[in-house]
Each structure stands twice: as structure tokens, then as C-alpha cells.
Design a protein that fits this description.
It is built from nine helices and eleven strands. With about 250 residues, the protein is an alpha/beta fold. Strands 1, 4, 5, 6, 7, 8, 9, 10 and 11 form a nine-stranded mixed sheet that branches. Strands 2-3 form a two-stranded antiparallel sheet.
């Protein structure tokens, strides 16, 4: 099975402007993410950006760069632009590797692509990890996912789902029988599906939760969720996250 990796990268991050060009142990963030993809089984890797500064840096380490519109609201829209420009076939599997994930294991990139290939009735595939800490479960910045017995997502939320009415919210630690999972923002799609997805209007649940994947479930389509074979290191959203990742690369 062949698949492509597309890395959306924009310069104008709200909380950390110029984020893709931030330095981490002598290399830019975008190069660190690109090197994660290089270790996977991807047949091709494309960095999707609308900024000439990012293009120049990416080309300096021999990456393929696709210039996309500056009007795209999301990284998913940017990836759909790449699909059109690269003329991927509708059944081509495309992995969306966020441009702020410099510690994404190659095994998990392969896993999400293989997961989609093995579930032909799914429109998308993603991964999750077990939650073990109370603070993580109640953190609205940590997206939670509930799946059915066959591994298909039932719902994603910033809320603490499923809600344990016998024990929450007054818990110092999670009960040993607790089964809660955080969503890891790594996706695989078929190119044809993504073309349809970006044509759909935003649904109300998506607006309320600010979670794009809810648009898929609202339309009655399926997302398969695998438990990640390796738990990725932290992504980068804030200056504090950047400092934390820099320290990890120096240890």
C-alpha cells in the first residue's frame, strides 16, 4: 500500500507567529516534522504552505513544496489544494501530519495509513492514546474521543467523555477501571473523500467544539480510531510548548 504525507505549514500562527521556522536544536520545526515523515513508509512527502519564507527554508533541505492559497481557513483545506495540484487519484491515501508535531513516531504515521487501508468503509482514520492523568482528562485543550466496539468514532469532544457520574468531577486520580482516550491529531484520508469534505458547510457541533472532524460524523460518515502503537511526544502550540520540546531534543 502506498501513501502520501502532506504537512500543512502556515507562518501566521496566532499564539506563535512564524512557528514553522522556530529553531529546535539547530534545525527548524518544519524540518524536524519533515524528518519524522522521512522515516515513515510514505512514497512522497509534500510541505503545503502559502509563505515564501517557509518555502525557501523547506527547499533548502530538499523538500517538495506546494504553494497554496492564503485564503484557506484550515490545514485540511490546504491539503485538499495539494491534492488538486498533485493530481492524486481519488483512492490515494493521504496522511495529514501537522506542521507542529516534531515528535510524531514514524510507526504511528504508518499505522494511521494502514488503518485506513484496512477499513474500506471509513472515510478517515486517526489514532488515540489512553488517558491516565486527571488533569489531562479535564483539560479542554485535550480532545477526547469515544469509539464503538468496532473502533469507529462515536464522538469527539473537549469535554471529559464518557462522564463517570459516580466519580466525577471530584477525583484526585482516575479509577483503575476508567477508560478514557485522548485524540491524537494525525489523520489519513482518501483523496476523493477530502475533495468532498472541503465542499461541505461547517456543522453546528463543529462550531461549538471547534473540532473539524465532527463535520465527518455529522454527515454520517465513519472515522476509524486505532490506539497508537507509540505515544507521540508533545506538539507545539505555545512558546511554553516550544521550550519544552527544545529541552527534549537536548536531553
Amino acid at each position: 500500500m502506498g501513501f502520501s504525507v502532506v504537512i500543512p505549514a502556515r507562518y501566521a500562527s496566532t499564539r506563535l507567529p512564524g512557528k514553522p521556522l522556530s529553531m529546535i536544536a539547530g534545525k527548524t520545526l518544519i524540518q524536524r516534522v519533515y524528518e519524522c515523515a522521512l522515516k515513515s513508509d510514505a512514497e512522497d512527502i509534500v510541505i503545503a504552505t502559502d509563505d515564501a519564507r517557509i518555502r525557501e527554508v523547506a527547499e533548502s533541505f530538499s523538500a517538495t513544496v506546494c504553494m497554496t492559497s492564503s485564503n484557506h481557513a484550515t490545514g485540511t483545506d490546504r491539503i485538499a489544494d495539494v491534492i488538486r495540484q498533485q493530481d492524486y487519484s481519488d483512492d490515494r491515501i493521504v496522511v495529514n501530519l501537522q506542521g507542529d508535531e516534531p515528535l510524531m513516531p514514524a510507526a504511528v504515521i504508518n499505522q494511521v495509513a494502514n488503518n485506513l487501508a484496512q477499513h474500506e468503509d471509513a472515510s478517515a482514520a486517526t489514532v488515540s492514546a489512553r488517558i491516565h492523568k486527571v488533569d489531562e482528562l479535564f483539560d479542554p485543550h485535550v480532545v477526547k474521543v469515544v469509539s464503538n466496539r468496532d473502533g469507529y468514532a462515536m464522538y469527539f469532544s473537549r469535554a471529559s467523555i464518557p462522564w463517570d457520574r459516580e466519580h466525577f468531577p471530584d477525583v484526585a486520580r482516575l479509577p483503575p477501571f476508567s477508560e478514557h482516550y485522548r485524540h491524537i491529531g494525525l489523520y489519513a484520508y482518501r483523496a476523493g473523500f477530502l475533495k468532498r469534505f472541503v465542499s461541505w458547510p461547517v456543522c453546528q457541533h463543529e462550531k461549538v467544539e471547534s473540532l473539524e472532524q465532527l463535520r465527518i460524523l455529522w454527515r454520517g460518515e465513519k472515522i476509524h480510531v486505532d490506539v497508537a502503537t507509540e505515544v507521540p511526544g508533545p506538539g507545539i502550540d505555545t512558546p511554553e510548548d516550544l521550550d519544552k520540546v527544545r529541552d527534549l531534543f537536548l536531553t
